[in-house]
Structure formats: C-alpha cells, structure tokens
Design brief:
The structure holds 2 protein chains of 2 kinds. By secondary structure, chain A is an alpha+beta fold. Chain A is built from 27 helices and 23 strands. Chain A is elongated, with a radius of gyration of 33 Å. Chain B is built from 7 helices and 10 strands. In chain B, a hairpin with a 2-residue loop joins strand 9 and strand 10. The chains are: A alpha+beta, B alpha/beta. Bound molecules: adenosine-5'-diphosphate and magnesium ion. The site of magnesium ion has 2 residues of chain B, from helix 1.
Chain lengths: 806, 221
C-alpha cells in the first residue's frame, strides 16, 4: 500500500503539471456529480423517505381499479375494508381514511384546513407515537363518541403557537366541538396535506354499505411479505368480492402500491426517476469527456509508458497510476460538485410555491444528508473509474516493442490512437443528443399544456375555492341560496366583469365527478364507454373562463329545482353520443331516471393535463344539482389580486364563518398544476444543455488534438500538393464523420428515450417530428462550429516546420 | 529551366535578421542532375523548400521555365508546383494509415485526375518500381529502403519535370542508398531534372554537378 500513497502523490503532481486540462476535467465532473447530488436529495426526500414513518417501505396503499385498466386509483367502499381486514394474510394492519376539508373557527380568522377521518388502526399502520398526548382508541370509532382530534405539528405550530397546554383543549372545526388529544411529530402529513386527524366513526349501516366508494385504504405488510404477494392476494380477494357483490363490485379489481411510490403522486415518482436517469447520463457524458482528456494525456506519455513496461513495470501498476489520477480528479470534482448541489437545491426549493409544497411530503426536509453524501461519494468513485476507462483500454492493448522502436511521435499515422478517442466522443455526443431530444420533448409538452385553448387571458381571472361545511349547510336550498347570493354580490363588486361557479375548474385538481349516462331512446348500458364527467356550474362560467358556446344557449340563471331539468354538454359528448349531430332538445339521465334536456353545447376544454384527449362532460345548473364544494372564477377589469379584500368582504357579508381557500389567478392555478412538469422540464433542459456543451467540448478537444497529432501528415499532404482548402475539408470531413455517427446513434437512442418517457409526455407526441428534426440540426450546427477552429488551424500548418525531422 | 537571382532568406530573431540564404544565384538546365552539399545548418533544406515553393518568405527573383515565381501569389505557385515538382523526404514521410498503393494515390488525389485514371497510373508506377507485391502493405511493414522507394515513386507519380530530394538516403544503409540512387539515375535519363541534397560523396557522384552551400552562401567552383 506504500505504492498507493506514491501513486496518489504522482497523480497530484500530474494534475498540477497540467492545470488547464485538470481544471476542465474537474469542472466537467463537478457539474455531473453536483447535479446527481441535488437530484439524490430530491429523490431521498420525495421517494425514499417522504414521511418520518418507521419501515416506510412496508406501508402500502390499496385502491380499487377497473379490471384491465393501466392507471387509476379508486376509493373503496366500507365493506371492502371489512372484507379485506378479515381475509388478507399479507398485511398485519389495515386502516381507512376519508378526506375532511374543515373550517377551523375560534382561533383568529376562520381558516380552511385539510385533514382526514381515520380509523384508530391508522396510527398502528404508521407505527407512530405522538409528539405529545395520545392517538385514538377503538372506542372512539363509535358514532357519538368521536370527539377527539389529533393535530399535526405544523397546525399546532401555526394556529396554536405551539401551545404546550394544547392537550385537552376544545376547538371548533366546521361547527363540531372536538378535544385535542394528541400532536403528531414534525413532518408527518399523511394523507396529504394531513393537518389533523379525527376518528372515523360509522354506524353498522354505513359499514355495510358496499355501494359508496369514498374511503382510502392503507396497510402495513407483515414482516417477510412482499409487495408482489400483497398484489396477488388483493387481486384474488377483489375477484372473489366481485362475485359476492355483483351489484356494486362487478369488474372492480384492487391495486396495491408502495406508499412511497404514490404519496407524491405517481407522476412525481416517475419524473424523479427520469431525472435521475438524465443526470446519470449527464454524469456519464462528463466521464467520457474526462476519459478523453486522460487518454490524450496518457497517449502523450506513450513512450514513457513503453519504457516503464520494458523496465518491468506491470500493466496493473500503470493502470493503477492512471486510475488514481482519474479517481482523484473525480473526488475533487465531487467536492466542487457539492457547491453546485447546494446552489441548485436552493434554487429548486425557492421555486416551489407553498400551495404545491404541501402536497409533497418530505419536501421541506430536503437537503444534503448523510445518505446523499454517501451516494455522492460512491458516484464520484464510480465516475473516476469510468473516466479512467480510456487509458485502461489503451494500456491493455498497447504493445511495448512498437512504441520503443519507432521514434515515439514520428508516426504520421495515428488511426489507432484516434479511434479510441473517436469512439468516446461519438458515444458522448450521441448521448447528448438523446438528452437534448428528451429535454425538448418535455419542454415542448410543458409549453403546450400551459396554454389552455381559452379566449381570455387566464391572468385576468381570479379563482378561489369554497367548501361549505355540511354541518352548517344542512339542506340543498341553503347551499343554492349561498351560491345565488355569492354570484350576485360578486357581480356587484366594482372591477368584476363576470362571475362563474364550477365544481372543479380545468387543472384545478380538486377531484372530478363521473357518472353513467343513458341517452333517451337507447338501452341503458353499464360500462366505461358510457361514463361521463359531471360538472355543476353557475353564473357566466363559460364567458368568464373563455370557453365558447358552440350551439344552443347558455343557462339563463333562472333555472330552479322545480323547472325543467336542463344540461349543457361539451363537443366531445356530442361527437361521442350523437355522432356530431346537434343534440339540443335531446334528453339523457344519469342513472336515476330523471331526464335532463340538452340546451347548449360548449367548446372542449381539457380538465387535467394528464388527459390524452378531452372526455365527454355534462354541465348542470347549480340550482338543479347541488354541490357544496366548488371553484369560483371572476373575470376582472382590474388587477385580479387587488379584488381579494372586496371579495372576502362579499363572502363575509353572506356567511362570516366561511373561509376562502386557494385564492390565485387562473394563470397561477394552471401554473401550479403543471409545476411538477415545469420542474422536470427545466431540469431536463439544463441537463440537456450542459450535455450539449460537454459534447461540443469533447468534439472540439478531439479535433484540436487530432490536428496536432496529424501535423506531420498535414505537412506531407501540403508538400504533395494539397491546397489549404483541401486540408480544411479533410479536417471537416472527419468532424462530419463524427457528427454523422453520433447523429445516427443519437437519433436511435432518442427514439428509445422518447418511448421510455411516453407516459411522462403531455401535450406532445413522443415522436414529435419537429423535435426530431430540429435537435439533430442544432447538434450539427454546434458541432460544425466546434470543428471550424481546429480546421482553420490545420490550414495554417507550415509544411516546412511540420516536416523538419531533426 | 530554373533561375535564381539574388535570392535571400532570413529569419527575424528579435531585432536581428538571421540570414539563412544569401544572394543566391543559381541556374539549372532541363535534364540536369544537381547535388547540393554543405555542412549541417548551411541552408540546403531551406533552398530546396524555396525551390519547391513551400517557402514563400524570401526576396529576389525565381524564374521557372521563364515564369516569374516571385510575382505569383500562393495559389499560382501551388499550381506550378503541382504540375512540375515532386518531393522526396529524408524520413520518407509515408502516411502510416494508408497502404503503399493508397500512399501513391495521395498526390494524384490533389490533382484533377479521374479515379479510374488514377488507378491505372498507380498500377503502372507500382509495376515500374517493381513493388506490385507490396501494394497492400502498410509502411510499417516495409524496410527503410523499400519505404524510400515508395517515397520516390510517390514523388514521380504525377509525372513532374523536377524532382527535389532532401537527403533521400540519409536514413538508409549504403546498399539501400545505392538502389535509390540507381532509381534517380534512371529517372534522370528518362528526362527528369533532379536536385538532391546529400552528405555522401558517393551519392553526389551520380550528379552532373555539385553545388556547395556554406552559411547560406553558394561557394563558387
Ligand atoms: N523557423 C526557423 N527560425 C529560425 N531559424 C531557422 C528556422 N528554420 C531553420 N532555421 C535555421 O536555418 C538554418 C538552415 O536550416 P536548413 O536549411 O534546415 O539547414 P540544412 O542545410 O541542414 O538543411 C539553420 O541554421 C536553422 O537553424
Ligand atoms: Mg536539411
């Protein structure tokens, strides 16, 4: 091992002797390793340890899913919980929860807080001890005895100023008096955004209801049980239940996922994984780049190496020497990379709005920690070894004798030496193209989905959400009254142009309602082809958000519970159920036999960017189909946010207890919903551009080196009558060959990555022809630029100097 | 054929001019075989490169077949060179990545000659130099003498009037050297004008005339 210390010292000396190329190598690796480190931090926070739950990998989510569907997580019925709990062998505990959007009153202004009804077993599944107080007992699952509440640390801190005497205090949420019995530890926010928990208390009738699907199940695997076993078991279980309860469970299967996979949404997990791929590719490119620089250095030492070999040095020893140099370079690069990581993490975190952050558990705890540093160190060593590959290959092939015989550098040919470097550079450039295509597909898709096809500027529309507590609004007419008053008061507010209500605005991600539709004169069919989205609307919604009326007329506002039941539908609905014929005047019902007459057709609008195509939608007037939770959109003549106070006042004058949530412009709402893609797109774009830069650097250094290496050859050719133009072309042709090879490989690879990313691309086709033409063209231009300088230098070769043989 | 008048060349070294060629007056007739001799560093190679038009930074007059080279621009000089000159190097300077046949093809590729014609010319020269059997070998597979033979073949392949040779036998055994000199003699008899730098009196004896250079000056006989 004494030899090792010597090797390291030698490596240091050689790095110092060649500061320019060493700095370039360190910089390339620093960028690659720095980005890896920051994405490791993101992955660690979002994927691996999103919640402070012990053995989180054993916690699973069990959801319903239509048989044969590839995606989708449906809530389950109460009977599923009891059926599963009594039969499933792969899990040790099972719990269900149901979201509860409550209004907290009595502590400052009323605020909207999101929590959940949970069974007492919920905290057993999570295996979490409260920070203080206790969690629920099974007695509290009885209706009438469920008066406790467990607070999250964040709610305790924000709303109660971390009051140490909180336990036993009585508070009011949505009109219910509850007693605080516990506070959970920091960072525990499940189910998202998890600000409080109250016991789920159902009576026997509710537990026996197999037709209402509203619960979410979470369980803990038994020690030794695997995810696959649980998947198989629940699928079998669901198949049995489907037979036992044909009325409600036909074609319904069950799907099991690890909690960490789903907690931030499956897209977040996939995007994080894809980003890791991108960043590792980038790192690999950086390694190839460094390998190339190292190879150039080793080639320059050909004679020295040959002499050492001839004097009895083992190849292994020489290999260790050059590897020591690469690994040392990578470790220095990693140290610099940490700076890049800290900086880019700051950037990533500061760009996350709180509205979105609360859906991402673990986000706030994101940072460089021991695990991340450990992975960074592993990455650095691996990168060092990979970047030592060039010299290693060369050393394993180079014959001793030939390099001693010949005068070392007299050779006018260097095809062999060039080939290895060319392979490295071509690989690097091809990979860069792959990343560029992947990045620009994502960016293009992102830009496309951010542009809703509406005729107004979303920045001029103010939106917010209202969630009327059913404890106060005990009848439909009360809700309708609130909505009617709200529309009127808002319309009367100065600066407001028009007002609309909708169950769920496009991109609003507050959950959509679906129903089976039966068209008059056709047999009632149950099946996915007859499922349509149902929205409830009020005011001038379509004008407010810029969706056109295609035929018929808008709702008048005079609809009522006792007037004719009417509905509007979107164009897709017309195409799907009426073959594009004008449906105005036709009727349908939603499974309840109550006929609704179509009075108008609106333009299509995407409800959710993950939709590959717009689905059929039915709009009903709020007076005829009541929903207490809805979005409000206001088209304003002034800066939208300047109206917030006036709007609060308007709501206050109707119901002083009613909070508003998610107040933001429609533009912000859209932007927030695609923020994850924005993050991925910008990350990919940065990675793609850095990759392109490294590839250009690689090609440039190869061309520059090869021109130097071929000085004599160029001299000879000039002496044999070649013109400067011919020399320039000779060099450019070589560059062209490299570009052509990289382009070929890169385009193949790009189709590969596009296929891989298919599930993550929205608003753009995975084989988008423009991207596949423009990106290679960009690469060609940039590579040409990288070759021009060396080519120009080649033409300035002085044949006399080149041919001087002394 | 070649006529140099008051030709001078110097290198600027700081404020000083370092003369390599001084007031060179030289006439070479068509079909002549001239040996250039002199000590190392005397300026022989420099003179050859001036004649071969690789070097353009000199003063004085250079007439080739009555054309004033000194008045031509680089392009025109290159044209004259391509049509009339061939060059043989001391260290052969074959291109290592190309076979013998491909090496011979290089000068032709820089002249306006059709591919099929080029193949015929290469085949013909391989034949004349009796190296047909070696045409697919790479330079590293040849001995020094064979390599220089290819070097000479390459120099004459475009059918030049003048062959410039800078110490063509400098790296060879004397027996190999004689083989090359016999080849030069044959080429000269066939009409080529040859200007050859050499250190060997034996080789110089093949020439009709010896020009001696010392410190950039031509010694008068
Ligand atoms: N680029 C240069 N700068 C300065 N001096 C040069 C340069 N090239 C050659 N010389 C000098 O010119 C002189 C003549 O060189 P050369 O013609 O090669 O001599 P030789 O007669 O040995 O062939 C030498 O003294 C050499 O040092
Ligand atoms: Mg010389």
């Amino acid at each position: 091992m004494a030899g090792l210390r010597e090797d390291v010292r030698g490596a240091f000396r050689r790095l110092a002797a060649n500061p320019g190329s060493s700095a370039a190598a360190v910089l390339a690796l620093a960028v690659g390793i720095g980005f890896s480190t920051s994405i490791y931090s993101v992955a660690d926070a979002l994927l691996f340890r999103p919640l402070p739950v012990p053995e989180i990998e054993r916690v699973i989510l069990i959801a319903g899913r239509e048989e044969g569907a590839a995606r989708g997580h449906r809530t389950i019925a109460a009977t599923d919980y009891t059926d599963w709990k009594s039969s499933a062998r792969s899990i040790e505990t099972l719990a269900v929860s149901h979201g509860f959007s409550a209004t907290l009153t009595g502590v400052g202004d009323p605020v909207q807080i999101q929590g959940a009804w949970v069974t007492a077993s919920f905290f057993d599944v999570m295996r979490l001890q409260p920070l203080m107080g206790r969690v629920f007992t099974s007695e509290e699952e009885t209706p009438g005895r469920n008066h406790s509440i467990v607070l999250s640390q964040i709610l305790w801190e924000r709303q109660f100023g971390s009051d140490p005497n909180i336990i036993g205090r009585t508070i009011e949420i949505s009109g219910r008096k509850v007693t605080v019995c516990g506070v959970m530890p920091k960072g525990f926010t499940f189910p998202q955004p998890g600000m409080f928990w109250v016991p789920l208390a159902l009576d026997d009738k509710a537990w026996a209801d197999s037709g209402s699907f509203y619960l979410r199940a979470v369980g803990r695997l038994k020690p030794g049980a695997t995810l696959d076993e649980a998947r198989a078991e629940f699928r079998a279980l669901a198949a049995r239940i489907a037979k036992q309860r044909p009325d409600t469970h036909t074609r319904l299967s069950a799907h099991v996922d690890a909690l960490r996979e789903q907690i931030s949404g499956d897209l977040t997990a996939s995007f994080t994984r894809m980003t890791i791929c991108f960043v590792l590719f980038l790192l690999f490119i950086a390694c190839l780049n460094v390998a190339n620089l190292q190879l150039a250095k080793v080639l320059a030492r050909t004679r020295e190496m040959a002499v050492r070999l001839a004097m009895g040095a083992s190849r292994a020893r020489l290999l260790r020497q050059t590897l020591a140099e690469s690994v040392l370079t990578a470790l220095i690069g990693a140290a610099c990379g940490l700076l890049i990581a800290v900086w880019s993490l700051d950037l990533i975190k500061s760009n996350m709005p709180p509205e979105v952050e609360r859906w991402l558990p673990g986000w706030s705890s994101m940072g460089l920690n021991g695990w991340v540093l450990f992975w960074t160190a592993c990455t650095a060593v691996a990168a060092g070894l990979v970047s030592g590959i060039g010299p290693a290959l060369w050393l394993s092939r180079t014959p001793v004798a030939a390099n001693l015989h010949e005068s070392g550098r007299s050779a006018t040919g260097s095809a062999g030496r060039q080939r290895l470097r060319t392979i490295l550079v071509v690989t690097e450039t091809a990979l860069a193209l792959v990343l560029l295509v992947g990045a620009s597909l994502t960016v293009k898709g992102f830009r496309a989905i951010g542009q809703l096809p509406v005729s107004i500027d979303p920045a001029r529309v103010l939106t917010f959400r209202v969630d009327l507590p059913l404890t106060h609004y005990t009848s439909k007419s009360m809700i309708v009254q609130f909505q009617r008053d709200l529309i009127e008061r808002l319309r009367a507010t100065p600066g407001v142009v028009s007002v609309g209500l909708l169950s769920s605005l496009p991109y609003g991600s507050s959950g959509n309602n679906y129903s089976l539709v039966t068209i008059e004169g056709r047999p009632a069919e149950r099946g996915p082809q007859n499922i349509t989205q149902v929205q409830v609307t009020g005011g001038d919604l379509f004008r407010t958000i810029g969706v056109p009326l295609v035929s018929g007329s808008m709702f008048t506002g005079a609809e009522g519970a006792d007037t004719q039941s009417v509905a509007m539908v979107n164009q897709t609905f017309v195409r799907k159920y009426f073959d594009g014929q004008d449906p105005v005047g036709r009727r349908f019902h939603l499974g309840d036999g109550k006929w609704k007459t179509i009075t108008g057709v609106t333009g299509d609008i995407v409800q959710d960017f993950t939709e590959r195509s717009v689905g059929p939608v039915i709009y009903q007037p709020y007076q005829q189909s009541t929903q207490g939770a809805f979005d409000v959109a206001i088209y304003t003549a002034v800066e939208p946010l300047s109206l917030v106070a006036a709007i609060r006042q308007a709501v206050y004058s109707i119901d002083p207890q009613q909070p508003l949530s998610l107040i933001r412009s429609f533009r912000k709402l859209i932007d927030h919903s695609i923020l994850g893609i924005a993050h991925a797109a910008s990350m990919f774009a940065v990675v793609g551009l850095v990759a392109l830069f490294l590839a250009v650097l690689g090609v440039y250094s190869l061309m520059a080196w090869s021109v130097t290496e071929r000085t004599r050859e160029i001299g000879v050719r000039l002496a044999l009558g070649a013109t400067r133009e011919e020399i320039r072309w000779m060099v450019l042709r070589r560059g062209g060959t490299i570009a052509a090879l990289s382009l070929g490989l890169g385009i193949l690879g790009s189709f590969g990555i596009a296929r891989l990313m298919q599930g993550l691309l929205f608003g753009v086709s995975a084989t988008d022809p423009v991207t596949f033409m423009v990106m290679p063209a960009v690469l060609v231009c940039v590579l040409t630029a990288a070759c021009l300088l060396p080519a120009q230098r080649a033409t300035r070769t002085d044949p006399i100097a080149a041919l001087r043989h002394e | 054929m070649i006529s140099l008048r008051n030709l001078e060349k110097f290198y600027q070294q700081g404020p000083d001019r370092f003369y390599v060629l001084r007031r060179i007056n030289l006439d070479i007739k068509p079909g002549e075989f001239v040996a250039v001799m002199g000590p190392s560093g005397a300026g022989k190679s420099t003179l050859l490169h001036v004649l071969g038009m690789h070097d353009t930074a000199w003063t004085g007059e250079y007439l080739f077949l009555d054309h004033p080279i000194h008045k031509m621009d680089r392009k025109q000089r290159l044209e004259v060179y391509k049509r009339h000159f061939g060059f043989v190097f001391q260290s052969y300077h074959l291109l290592d990545d190309l076979t013998v046949a491909e090496n011979l093809d290089v000068p032709l590729s820089y002249r306006d000659i059709k591919k099929s014609e080029r193949q015929a010319i290469v085949a013909d020269v391989l034949d004349r130099f009796q190296i047909v059997g070696k045409k697919d070998l790479f330079p590293s597979q040849l001995s020094g003498g064979q390599q220089q033979l290819v070097g000479v073949a390459r120099a004459i392949i475009a059918n030049p009037k003048v062959i410039l040779a800078d110490e063509p036998t400098g790296n060879l055994h004397s027996s190999q050297g004689i083989e090359i000199m016999e080849m030069f003699k044959k080429l000269n008899e066939a009409g080529a004008t040859i200007i050859m730098v050499t250190h060997s009196e034996v080789n110089a004896s093949y020439a009709h005339r010896i020009v001696r250079i010392v410190d950039g000056w031509i010694e008068q006989q």
